[in-house]
Amino acid sequence: MSTRLIRAIGLMSGTSLDGIDAAFIETDGEALVAVGPALTLPYEPELRALLRSTVGGKGPVAEAEEAMTRAHEAAVRALLSKHPLPRPDIIGFHGHTILHQPRQGRTWQLGDGALLAALTGIDVVNDFRSKDVAAGGEGAPFVPLYHRALAAKLEKPLAVLNIGGVANVTWIGEQENDLLAFDTGPGNALIDDWALTHTGKPVDEGGALARTGRVDEKHLARFLAHPYFARLPPKSLDRDDFASFMPQGLSPQDGAATLAAMTAAAVAEARRHFPSPARRWLVAGGGRHNPVLMGLLRERLGGPVAPVESCGWDGDALEAQAFAYLAVRSLKGLALSLPGTTGVKMPTTGGQLHRAGAAKA
Fold it and tell me: Can you list the positions of beta strands (E) in the chain?
């Protein structure tokens, strides 16, 4: 008797503030995953600025939440209009993280699940992280269970590195429960902020700034002395936890080169916490598009490092797919986080379900 796969759309708005990723999958929420199409809907500059103004939980939060929820509806409609897909059973709506302080028992993702359910006419699961934090977990990373499902047939130990605004890694061992995940340090956030300040562009496109710059080794050494890197995982970061390490007095090129080196060096530091060395590294997230950053990772990690596309995954859609997968797990009452992924004491469910028929736009 075949298992019915649940049709799900996942939505992800990363801390890098580039836009909304939407992805369609069919899954049983466990081992079976059939990946469908995906797209990215870039944020309009005005909405990006509005969201940026709420980071830290300040500013016009209610206005930003409604605007970004409506932008997520547009992403769902764009995906469904572009591709001849069956009607989804559920939407996994991650929302946009504006505050993440698990040690103070707080994590905050903007996103009105009831409004999105009303606008789309599709049931929505959101608020994935709160239950984990309330139970003493870090509330991040939340993609490792999906990484494990995708990597079922790959050689292990394996490291899956996601470089978004913050960088995080999933170490997957040979046994099913051999799973460790944590944030490694800054990802693209500081590089993006530096590029915006010095060029007016929201990213260092193709690593153009960093390619011609020189790394400030003293600044890098100060950064690597931060106690976070020695702290045992699981552990997680807010987007701006390392904002005080933004370079001072450097040229645009040298600052970008130094920030890229910081991201790569922090990843290399993460290896000390692995139960055994990874045979290879697969890289997802926007950082894999930066050739300077990818080159630095290969230098510092000393082993095979490649974009996730090398094994047939879609690195732009991976996190959106993951929240589609987690929405299905939430519907089934399955764990979304484990002691090895967030430090929670026991496998923990999560997510809040909003029925489309019960909501009003």
Answer: 6-13, 19-27, 33-42, 90-101, 106-110, 124-126, 158-163, 166-172, 179-186, 280-284, 305-307, 352-354
pTM as predicted: 0.91
Residue 336 Rama label (left phi>0; alpha psi -120 to 50; beta): alpha
Residues of the chain with CATH 3.30.420.40: 6-141+317-358, 144-311
In terms of DSSP H, where are the helices of 84-216?
113-120, 130-134, 144-150, 189-199, 208-211
Query: Per CATH, which fold does 144-311 belong to?
Result: Nucleotidyltransferase; domain 5 (3.30.420)
Cα(259)–Cα(273) distance, integer angstroms: 23
CA dihedral 121, 125, 126, 128 (to 10 degrees): -170
Tokens 């209009």 map to which residue?
Answer: 81
CA distance 279 to 344: 27
- Averages of pLDDT over each 10 residues, the chain, 361 residues: 84 87 97 96 95 94 98 98 96 95 93 97 98 95 95 96 93 90 95 95 93 98 98 90 96 98 98 97 94 97 94 94 98 96 96 84 52
164 C-beta neighbours (distance < 10 Å), count: 20
Could you please state the CATH topology (level 3) that the domain comprising 6-141+317-358 is classified under.
Nucleotidyltransferase; domain 5 (3.30.420)
